[in-house]
């Protein structure tokens, strides 16, 4: 059987309730084309059309899952051999999932050994219904992309943070979607804690009291910071980096939190022909960045990558 000949570069695709984002990362690690389509009627037709127009057929591709499609569950790491880990984790989380175990696809990533005072090794398990996963995968493969990696939003955000907000010590990284958000707490390039935030951009845009929404977001972040220090036995978070969102949000966070607050800025990753990077494409960009070797991305300062 003839082996598929792949093109250089990588396409990142992020599809969810908010819409479909696509980005192309060239062989030098520069962001090229980046596109966002808000709630298309036919995702498969859209992907086929864009891939054909951009000539992306047979280009390696990363699909990033929207948080609405999977559960992210924290559990003790089973004391088993690596070959037995996947099955052992499935049994540990079966009562935590909102769907039957036999319908689930599960992947894990470990937390550092010193998380939670080093008392017990922990890991996160991402669980998604197999049918949901196949419905997301099929349009990407049918469009002609060479799908070889599936990532979750938390790890995509981590990839962005490592390239755009390198920080020695501990930091928080925030990304808001339409109806929800995710918050990563990171130290020396490794994820220690992930939290879902029940506040999103659409909720803010339709709120009659935006300041109250900002205050609720501050409270969610502060609770996570307190948990990081008290329950995980870690140091003090000093920085918060957030994805561009609602006007005034960054200023409010900066005033209300005892942190250095800054917007995630991927401008140094942009190729010469691209004027700006839309915040709606961040997940797609983060997915594509995850497979770029460290040190090859323009302007990158390095840092360890969370396991996926």
Layout of strands and helices, then pairs:
Blueprint: E1 10-16, E2 19-25, E3 31-37, H1 43-54, E4 60-65, E5 71-76, H2 82-93, E6 104-110, E7 122-129, H3 130-142, E8 146-152, H4 153-164, E9 170-176, E10 181-187, E11 190-197, H5 201-205, H6 210-230, E12 239-242, H7 249-256, E13 260-263, H8 282-289
Parallel strand pairs: 1-4, 4-8, 9-12, 12-13
Antiparallel strand pairs: 1-2, 2-3, 5-7, 6-7, 9-10, 10-11
Instruction: Assign the CATH architecture of the domain at 166-263.
Output: 2-Layer Sandwich
Rg over CA atoms: 19 Å
CATH class bucket of the domain at 166-263: Alpha Beta
Cα-to-Cα separation, first versus last residue: 30 Å
The CATH topology of the domain at 166-263 is: Nucleotidyltransferase, domain 5
Strand content: 25-35%
User: Unreliable stretches, pLDDT < 50, 5 or more residues?
Assistant: 293-308
How many helical stretches? 8
- Element order: H for helix, E for strand: EEEHEEHEEHEHEEEHHEHEH
Side-by-side strand order of the widest sheet: 3-2-1-4-8
Helix content: 25-40%
Q: Find the count of extended strands (DSSP E, 2+ residues).
A: 13
The average pLDDT score comes to 88
**Shape assignment:** globular
CATH homologous superfamily label of the domain at 166-263:
ATPase, nucleotide binding domain
Largest sheet: 5 strands, mixed
Backbone structural class: alpha/beta
């Amino acid at each position: 059987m003839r082996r598929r000949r792949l093109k250089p570069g990588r396409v990142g695709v992020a599809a969810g309730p908010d819409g479909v984002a696509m980005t192309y990362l060239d062989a030098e690690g520069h962001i090229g084309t980046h596109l966002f389509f808000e709630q298309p009627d036919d995702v498969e037709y859209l992907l086929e059309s864009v891939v054909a127009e951009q000539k992306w057929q047979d280009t390696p591709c990363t699909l990033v899952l929207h948080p609405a499609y999977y559960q992210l569950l924290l559990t003790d790491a089973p004391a088993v051999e690596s070959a037995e880990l996947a099955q052992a984790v499935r049994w540990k989380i079966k009562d935590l999932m909102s769907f039957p175990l036999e319908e689930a696809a599960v992947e894990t990533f470990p937390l550092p050994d010193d998380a939670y005072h080093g008392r017990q090794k922990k890991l996160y398990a991402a669980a998604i219904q197999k049918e949901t996963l196949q419905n997301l995968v099929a349009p990407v493969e049918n469009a002609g992309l060479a799908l070889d990696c599936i990532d979750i939003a938390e790890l995509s955000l981590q990839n962005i943070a490592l390239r755009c907000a390198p920080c020695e010590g501990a930091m928080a990284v925030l990304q808001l979607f339409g109806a929800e958000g995710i918050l990563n707490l990171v130290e020396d390039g490794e994820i220690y804690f992930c939290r879902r935030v029940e506040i999103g951009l659409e909720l803010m845009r339709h709120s009659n009291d935006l300041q109250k929404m900002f205050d609720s977001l501050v409270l969610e972040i502060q609770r996570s910071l307190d948990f990081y220090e008290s329950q995980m036995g870690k140091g003090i978070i000093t920085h918060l980096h957030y994805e561009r969102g609602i006007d005034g949000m960054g200023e409010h966070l900066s005033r209300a939190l005892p942190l250095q607050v800054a917007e995630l800025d991927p401008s140094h990753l942009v190729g010469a022909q691209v004027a700006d990077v839309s915040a709606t494409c961040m997940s797609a960009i983060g997915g594509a960045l995850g497979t770029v070797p460290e040190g090859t991305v323009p302007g990158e300062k390095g840092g360890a990558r969370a396991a996926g």
